[in-house]
Structure formats: C-alpha cells, structure tokens
Amino acid sequence: MPVQLWVSVVELGCFSGLLALGYFLVLRGADLFMFTMGPLAMFAALFGSYQVTKSGWPMPIAVLVGIALAVTISGLTEVLIVRPIHKRTGGEENPSIVAVVAILFLLEQLAGTLFGRTPLPGQPFWDKQFRWGEAVVSGQTIVTVIVTLVCFVAIMFWLRYSASGRMLRAVGDNENAARTLGLPVDRIRLIAFCLAGLLAGLAGTMFAAKAGVTFTNGMQWSLVGFLAVIVGGLGSVWAPLLGAVLVATLQTFTIFQFGNAARDYVTFAVAFLFFALRPKGIFQTKVRI
Amino acid sequence: MSKSDELVSIQPPQPLWTRHRWSIEAALAGLAGLLLLLYGSGAGSRQDTVVLICTYALLALGMYVPYIMSGSLSLAYNAYLGLGAYACGMLSTKLGWSSLWGVPIGMVLSAIIAVILAVATRKLSGFYLAGVTLLFAVAFQSFLLDQVDITGGPIGMQIVRPTIFGYSISRVQIMVASVIVVWAVGIFLARMRTSIFGVVVRIRKDNPQVVEASGISAPAISVVALALGAAIGSMGGSLYGMMHGVIQPETFGLHIIFLAIFMPLLGGQRSPWGAVIGAVIVVVFLFELNTLFDLDMLKNAGTLLFAVAILLVLRLAPDGLLGLGDVVRRKLLMRKQKDVR
A91 and chain B: CB distance < 8 Å anywhere? Predict the structure, then answer.
C-alpha cells in the first residue's frame, strides 16, 4: 500500500476514533448505542462550512458555533427524547433505538433542508503542507492527530480521577443501584451525551476539512464509529481508538484494492464476524471479584 | 346444580363483538379491501396507488411481527423488499421463468438472511441486531448500484409481466391479488397474535425469562419472528415489481426503513390492522396529496416529516391511532357510567 494511504489511515482512524469515543461514553453512561454520532458530526461540519462559504462568518466563530450546536442537540436528545422514553418504558431498549434512529434521519434531512443538498468544502485549521519521504502530510492532519490524542488522554483522566467520571461508570453498570445510592443519574447521563456531542462536533469539523461534507455523510459516519467501538470493545478508553485504526486500515486497503462498494461489503462482514465470534470486541471489560 | 354449572350460569353474556370477533374482523377488512378495489377500478394510476398501499401494508405487517410482537428491531427491510422485487426481475429476464416464481424465492431468501443476521446477534442486546441489519441494508444498497451485470446498476431491471399456465396476468388482476394477499396476511397475523405461539412471541418481548422458564428458547422465537417478518416484507417487494414492470435501486433506499418502523407505530400496536392503517395513511398523505397539490416541499422533506412524526408518536401517543381510539372509547364509557349513577 502506498505511503500516502497510511496518512489517510491515520486521518480516518483519528476521525472514527473520536466518534467511537463518543459511542463509548454514552454506552458506559447510558447503555445506549448513540447512532446519532455521525449526523451530529455532519451537522456541525456542514453548519461551519455553510456559514463561512455562504454567509461570510469568520472561520473560528462558525466552527465554534457548529460544535456548540452539536453539544446542544446531543444534550437535547437526552433531555427531550431519550430520557422521557427511557423512564416511561422502564428502560426498554427498542423505543430508545427507534428514537435514536429517528433523530439520525431527522438531522440528515434537517441539514439538507437548511444548508442545501450539495457538498461543501470543509474549513482547515492549518493549511500548510509538509513532505515526509514520499508522503505529503497536511497541517490539518497534524492538528487532527493532536486533538484526537488530547481528547483521549483527557477522557481517560476524567473517567479515572474525577468524581463525575467514576459516577459515569457506576451509572452505566447499574442505573437502579446508582439511583438508590443517591447518585445524580440524570446529570451524569446528560454529561455523557454532551461530551459525545462535543467529540462528534470536533471529529466532523476536522474530517470535513479533508474530505468535504454533505448531508448524507451522517449515516456513513455513524456506521464507521459504530464499527470501531464494536471491534475495539469497551475494556479500555483506548479500545475505541484501536478499533478505529484497525477499521480505517481495512477500509482504506479495501477501497484501494477493490473500489468503494467493496468497503460497504467488508464493513458489514467485519461487523458480522465480530458479532458472531467476539461481540464484546478486542478489549473486554473484566469484573474482579 | 354442580359448582361448574353455577359458574357458567353466572357468567354475563358475551357481547356480539367478542362472540363473533373473527368473522366481524374478516368482514370489516374485506369491506375495506372492496372499497380499495372500487377506488382502483378507475384510472390506471389508481391501480398503482392501490398496489403501493398493499406493498407498504405488507412492509408494515412484516415489521409488525418481529418489532411490535417480539420486540426485535431489524433495519434491513429495504433489502427484504428489494430481494422480493429483484428475484422476480432476475428470474423473468435472465432465466425466462414466470416472475411469479420470484415471490416464494424472494421470501425464502429474505427469511434465510434474516435468520443468519438474527442468529449472529441472538445473545446480544437489540442494538447489535439494529446495527448489523443497518450495515446489511447499506451493503445491499451498494450491491444494487455496483453489480451492474446482476442487478442492472442504477438503471435497474425490467420484470416481465407474470404468467400462470401460459396466461398473462393483467395489472387489474395483480391489484386484486395484492388486496387479497394483504387481507389474508392481516387475518393470519391477527389470529396468530392470539394463538399460543403468538402469546409466546409477545411474552418474549416483555419477559423473555418467563419464556425460557417454560422450556422455550426465547432467542429461537425471536429468530422465527424475524424470518416471518422478512418473508412478508419480501412479498410486498415482489408485488410492487410485478405491477410496475421496472425496478430501480432508489426505490429500495434507506428511507424504506423509516416507513417500515413508522407505519405500525402510527396505526397502533394492538392489532396488525394498525400497521395496514398506517400504510394507508402514509400513501394517501405523502403521495396522493403530493399529486393533487404539487407540494414539492412535502416530497423533499418526506423523511424529515416521518422522523418528526415518529418522535411525536413515541413521546405523545405510544399506542398509535388504535390506542388513541381505545382511550377515547374508555373515556366515553366512564362518562356514560357517571351519567347512569
């Protein structure tokens, strides 16, 4: 595989790693697969690009507002939709899945209606180019890698050393027990959703600078993050990143060898094999007694 | 008088609806079917509308079995619908068989795929089934577009008018057959719902431990429900394909998943007829109003409206229209009882 493709693997790995980290947080805190990660990333990126290219906003403001929107929408998803349904049904999973899938399609179509149905270019944070052997590495790629590592390290410390981080794990493991012990379950779940929105906003904005963005990206991006967290597992904060890099390598190699459609077949095949053989991913949670 | 005779004698007489429930239900559904056929006896485009209602009704009934009854959410219904249609197309254009053979073959293929996907995720939470079926739906869409030699690619493929014993079946006959199929499947599911098997399927949704304690495998029940639903959905695709004569990948896009979830939720979960009512509402509102008033915005924002509607139904009327009807009936009864006192 040409060296330049490994740069693409790093970019795609960081992007899907951030999305998978969002999935990881909501899974640990609310026991829910956050299928809206992709549309949230798309919405933030498309908002930023639209405001810069069509409305003439300064880039930093457009990007920040886009990311803030992703956080707000994610928080509202929990407060207005998921939480009431979760409480009414006593934690039944199907209504929550349907609600999350509905929001996925809602955000896609809303973005298409508000920002148009044609692709827009993303907004690079640092558009310098560096030559490294045969490969060309853009400043945007370096920013993406740094932001990804910072996010993972920050989340790791937050989960391990902060009170709210430890409570997140407690709430996700047994919500009823956490509520009985007096933990602020609703607040912890909201934090998980908002952090997931923040990660989605960052991921979408940074990846759009490389590949552009259109309203139909949401579904594809959701599935990439979903697969990364399935492959990586929930045993460690770094598991989603490892899963993301593996998936990115496989997808990039497949597209290079067999074309775009083969990527979808391989994505499905990998998910199927993991579900059948190792459903908890490579890194599994271990309970010490 | 023995004790059991006493018990029989003090039981209040059952109302007419309860005593002849099945006959009345079948007659009412048949009457609705006749009205639909009466509507379809007009211009040719109306026949397309009737078959579209039947296609969506089968899609909704297919979703009803695993999702509403068994609590297993599959998101691959665009693929099942597509398999039914493309099976008819391939058999009739590539092998020269009657496209009618595509109906059972599409059903069996869809059921097999549903079983494989369900078995892989049978011990996992519902999110995994939703995830793997969604990935399959995306891969199927890519397959339809990419494999030009097999599926015709973006242009799609033709379906030769079905024949039976050398006799070509007309559009009107396909329409009549579609209505009869929906009627029969509706009756079958309504009866199945209250049968022993149906009760087990429904208990599996709310309390799988009880099913397991009875010596029945809860995952196996879910797999059977998913296979049955996929086969019913595939039948809808076959009918659609045979009526239109041409099928294209965009007909079987991911928006179909929405319709499949939305229609049973909108119509009501307490009866399979709720799914059929949901299908009628979807077709009438989105397609007929669009034709009559040329509401381009409605057409473009169809999925947006469906998504908002699903969220509203989940939040405000989780039992759908039939459930709302029950609430109104109960309130009227309470008022009547108050007046008597």
Answer: no
